[in-house]
Write a structure and sequence with these properties.
By secondary structure, this protein is an all-alpha fold. The protein contains 10 helices and no strands. Helix 4 packs across helix 10. 33% of the residues are buried.
Length: 312
């Protein structure tokens, strides 16, 4: 009986070690996958604050909460099962779907550049918004944010799946769920802080002691500038990520020339500035990938507008 008990304890210890190793593997792969999705995360963080602009400050956090719940629903209820099914039954489709998502990111980034350089009249949007009551406007903005999040979440989950495609089904599910929750909490936690930062600054400017008053005034003035820069960074990240996904996808299908050209150009530039070799290499690679993203986005815009005109 004692021998049986010892054997049982040995089995339990072995199972515990196996579980700990599995958890370590999941944690390591989650961190790795999250890092790969960083560009899309930056874009998600940059895009979301725009959805609370023009709404009551009292509704900002409830709106962010509604979008957060929608984002979790996108990732865990819809995208996670789809990714697992694709990984199990049709892994060959992962790269083409990633490239389609990359093209969409390029399209979004190129459209933002087009709007910025005078291709869109924002006064029309503002006039249309003025005719809608607050509740309906809020619902429209939340739904729009969740739709945009779905595309970005699909890219995040697909990138994650590509990184764990050789793992077993349970590890894939655990990593996908962990990345989905981790990134959603991180992104919308940062977004919530960003959209309330000016209110925090105003409170400090009115009620804070000495130095904090000055800090609060600086925060009130600085948040709009920061949001402008964040939007620009988000657009750049969108083009960079979209371009890099397409380049890596082409390489996966045997077309290595674009990838080799960028690698060579980045290496030449980095060798010219040895002190910043790694940074220069990354910057030049990202620049070429973003330029490709702009080109792909422009082509998609043309096709989209032709398609819209044919539908009329």
């Amino acid at each position: 009986m004692a021998t049986g008990l010892i054997a049982l304890l040995d089995d339990i210890a072995a199972i515990a070690k196996l579980a700990a190793a599995s958890l370590d593997d999941v944690a390591a792969q989650t961190a790795k996958a999250s890092a790969k999705a960083a560009g899309v995360v930056i874009d998600d963080t940059a895009v979301t604050p725009a959805y609370v602009i023009g709404l009551s400050p009292k509704r900002e956090l409830p709106i962010i909460w509604r979008i957060t719940l929608g984002s979790l629903r996108n990732k865990l209820i819809f995208l996670l099962p789809i990714c697992l099914l694709l990984g199990y039954f049709a892994p060959a489709l992962i790269t083409p779907l990633l490239m389609v998502g990359g093209a969409y990111l390029c399209f979004e980034g190129a459209e933002k550049l087009h709007e910025y350089f005078g291709g869109h009249d924002h006064s029309v949007d503002e006039a249309a918004a003025a005719t809608i009551d607050a509740a309906e406007l809020e619902t429209q903005k939340v739904n729009g944010a969740i739709r945009t999040d779905f595309i970005l979440s699909a890219e995040i989950m697909a990138l994650t799946l590509a990184g764990v495609s050789t793992s077993d089904l349970y590890t894939q599910a655990a990593v996908l769920a962990a990345v989905g929750i981790l990134i959603t909490v991180a992104v919308y936690g940062v977004v919530a802080f960003i959209v309330k930062a000016d209110d925090i600054g105003l409170h400090l400017a009115e009620n804070g002691p000495g130095f904090m008053k000055s800090f609060g005034r600086g925060l009130v003035k600085g948040v709009p500038v920061f949001l402008t820069w964040l939007a620009a960074i988000g657009t750049a990240a969108m083009l960079w990520v979209g371009g890099s996904i397409i380049i890596h996808g082409l390489a996966a299908f045997g077309l290595h020339q674009p990838e080799h050209f960028i690698e060579h150009a980045a290496e030449v530039a980095a060798n010219a500035i040895p002190a910043g070799h790694g940074a220069v290499n990354w910057l030049v690679s990202a620049l070429f990938q973003a330029l490709l993203g702009i080109a792909v986005g422009a082509v998609v815009i043309v096709f989209y507008r032709v398609w819209k005109s044919l539908r009329k």
